[in-house]
Write a structure and sequence with these properties.
Two copies of one chain form a homodimer. By secondary structure, chain A is an alpha+beta fold. Helix content of chain A is about 40%, strand content about 20%. The two termini of chain A are about 30 Å apart. At the A-B interface, β8 and α14 of A face β8 and α14 of B.
């Protein structure tokens, strides 16, 4: 190491120490820690795929504290990695290995405001856990209409920053559709406050959109005003067998036509994934007596006003579907326990697939009407190009969003396969999706997982816009570096 | 004039001539004109409040031609003023008086694509006139759920660029809610193309939002894919009398509770505005036998599935409202002619108010629940501060968006009053709206009309974001200069 390098490192250390001293004074002992044991759990993503290091873990109490902290970070050029529940799928909340970044948790901002019954909305801090928001809404006869597997850890701030999806997007939209207003701390420490929802506001383009789905690269969401809807009074969960993925799409169109806005979820599961679930969770049963190539899981709901007729309407719709040859068999969950069991199968698929051995998972979207053909074509392409591999697709058919897994040949070494064929497979899947006019990230975001493929595949105008806006708002590049923006 | 100035002017002229020559070669005779008679109609806004001059009027045939034209404008540093139907309310499509700008009409891009019945959407050019879009959708049993007074001239591109509202926003949202995808030419001539709608796409924040409501300052929309909904099968239009604006809000809550998504419009009109309509259009009749302080105009709709029960449900709802003292009298339009007559009254209000003499009009929004109190407080403030003035408020109560007019004392000289008290009144109204947490532009945009008040009243973080994004995408400041961005 040359003297110059040594000098630079010493300066960095001295600068870091000065920064940490000021940050500690600003945030107090609850707000800043360098304790390795406390930090450890937050320096890797929950799936254990990304591992990082950080100067310290900061937990500001509110937007004002965060604003002051960001100004300090700007002064000392300290990169910031914001984090909510750390249950993202793309490594967007894990710092790099340099240890130069400050990990900033928004979890202390976990206040849920009074529920506004008349306007059906609630303002809450970025750190509110989704499950707690669900419970607060339910206690007032209302519902927050977005849910997903990680609801016990995912926070409002993280859900907004990644524009999270889930199983109710078909009817209610992604997180972006739930956000009426928000507050964010900008990369220079300014607070952008637009919490009070206005139904109409044409003072230029919608600035809050800059913070929805931008993965903390343009600002950190500190609070949001969210939409609530009337509580569910009734639901019917249907498990139906179909002959092909194209048949599943025809069934979807039939259900949409017959049930309109009562249709809240439409998921598809191929038979091999059901078998994987049987292997993984031996207590699981097929809701139907016999096997079929594909299954669909359909959620139909009604609020108080429509509750009474729901069961009848669902039975009539299924009867017609059967007569028209749109399904080969179907079961309606007889009670809530059975309904939960049907959903349990769907929710177990990702774990069950993962347990079968090395696999590459892809969260992709193509235009809804092209999805069935895409699945057939992509499965075919992958198994031909990589003999011995299996492709399975499952998920949100109604949204044009499937999770497309390519499973390694039996007996493959995980590390070797993932670094070799696995990597090539993911690139090929993303190439295909792009050729079909789709997106390499439907609902999990870009994070660090897909940032190279975004650079490779996005058209120049899209990359130009992403980079220009990033450069404009965060010229020092301090906010969540290495994520999303190629 | 010094020699230096003279030299600069000659250079400019030589440069302009060279630019015009190249532009003419690029666009052909249909695509470029300097004919003063042809241009005249497009150099003033339709209300005659703004007058400008331009180098020429360009009408590119498609996005590719526009892209090449923009690159030429960049080369010669020629400012661009994009224009659709020229029926905006804030002077956003009128060039300044310098004559240095190129006026760019998008009206030739007026193709309506095939209507996609299965996915209920249509892709059309920026120049499609709203009325033509309505008719194309209706011919296929569908509906484009946004309408406004200027539907015979307003274009899809202009509606998107100004995020237009109208009378159906309560149920269907502004233009932003109708846009599934779009294509735009950026300030450097690149084409951003995102016409194919994906229900889910989490490759960062939603880039198309940059072009919705940004008034052509960040790019020019050339085409869009728009949402369609099932055609209306039935409607009921109700004219109801209430004692106060607060009572109107209570009635709104009642109708929302009883009718849910059948409620499509809820407008308020004060008695003085009805009298203004009588003076302006003497054939008009009050739908009710006696006068009341306020009237509400309520539009209730049903598609095929709900059509049969609509009349019955509306009558039951009104019966309850009457019993609960929420209204003093009400009339349901007996047929379409009467329904159109009820709406005709509402649509005549702006013209009737204008005919009464000089007035300052304000398109403002406050949180919906605060609107009644705001109207009372603001009317009181204005008439006390400016004795002899009258304040009237009418419009979209359900959206928290009223048009708030302050009318000059009788006998005032228009020009003197508008430049003096009128200007002071508008500033005071905008101050008040800002204090109430509202917006100085609910649906008409900022344009050149409100750009000074935006600079004066917007909080620093909002201005910082607007300016930073503008500077990033249009560093030369060539796109629609002097509009929206202070």
């Amino acid at each position: 190491m040359t003297d110059k390098h040594l000098q630079a490192q010493t300066d960095t250390t001295a600068s870091s120490m000065a920064f940490l001293e000021k940050a500690a004074a600003l945030l107090g002992p609850r707000g800043l820690t360098q304790d390795g044991d406390v930090m450890a759990g937050w320096l890797s993503d929950w799936r254990g795929r990304y591992h990082g290091a950080a100067l310290a873990l900061a937990s500001p109490a509110d937007a004002q504290e965060l604003s002051a902290l960001v100004k300090l970070c700007v002064e000392y050029r300290v990169p910031i990695v914001p984090q909510g529940g750390n249950s993202g799928m793309s490594g967007g909340a894990t710092p790099d290995a340099s240890g130069r970044s400050l990990l900033v948790s928004l979890r202390r901002m976990n206040q849920i405001g009074a529920i506004d019954l008349e306007n059906r909305r609630v303002t809450c801090g970025a750190g509110v856990v989704l499950q707690n928001l669900h419970e607060a809404a339910e206690a007032q006869g209302l519902r927050f209409p977005l849910t997903l597997g990680g609801k016990g850890s995912a926070t409002v701030g993280g859900l907004i920053s990644t524009n999270a999806g889930g199983t109710q997007v078909l009817r209610h939209g992604n997180m972006v559709a739930q956000v009426l207003g928000l507050e964010a701390v900008l990369p220079d420490g300014q607070i952008f406050s637009a919490l009070t929802p206005l139904k109409k506001d044409n003072r230029g383009f919608d600035l809050k959109q800059l913070f929805i789905g931008s993965e903390g690269t343009l600002g950190m969401v500190t609070a949001a005003t969210l939409k609530l809807i009337p509580a569910l009074a009734e639901r019917r969960v249907v498990w139906a067998a179909v002959e092909s993925i194209q048949a599943a799409r025809r069934l979807l169109l039939h259900v949409q036509g017959a049930m309109g806005e009562a249709l809240e979820g439409f998921e598809v599961i191929p038979h091999p994934s059901l078998e994987a679930v049987f292997d993984y969770a031996p207590d699981t049963r097929n809701p139907l007596d016999s096997a079929a190539p594909w299954y669909t899981l359909i959620e139909l709901v009604a609020d108080q006003a429509q509750a009474e007729s729901l069961g009848e309407r669902v039975e009539a719709m299924l009867g017609e579907a059967f007569e028209q040859g749109l399904l080969s068999d179907a079961a309606i969950a007889a009670n809530e326990t059975q309904a939960e069991a049907f959903w349990g199968i769907r929710e177990t698929v990702p774990m069950a697939e993962r347990a079968k051995g090395p696999a590459k998972q892809h969260d992709i979207a193509v235009p809804v009407e092209k999805m069935p053909d895409f699945i057939v074509a992509a499965s075919d392409t992958m198994t031909k190009a990589f003999p011995g591999c299996h492709a399975v697709a499952f998920g949100h058919l109604g949204d044009g969003n499937v999770h497309f897994h390519v499973i390694a040949p039996e007996g493959s070494d995980r590390a070797a396969w993932e670094a070799g064929d696995g990597k090539a497979i993911s690139e090929m899947v993303h190439d295909l999706v792009t050729q079909w006019g789709g997106s390499i990230s439907a609902e999990h975001g870009i994070g660090q997982l897909k940032v190279d493929d975004l650079a490779r595949l996005a058209d120049p105008a899209r990359l130009h816009l992403l980079r220009s806006v990033k450069q404009a708002l965060d010229p020092l590049g301090l906010l969540n570096p290495g994520k999303l923006i190629p």
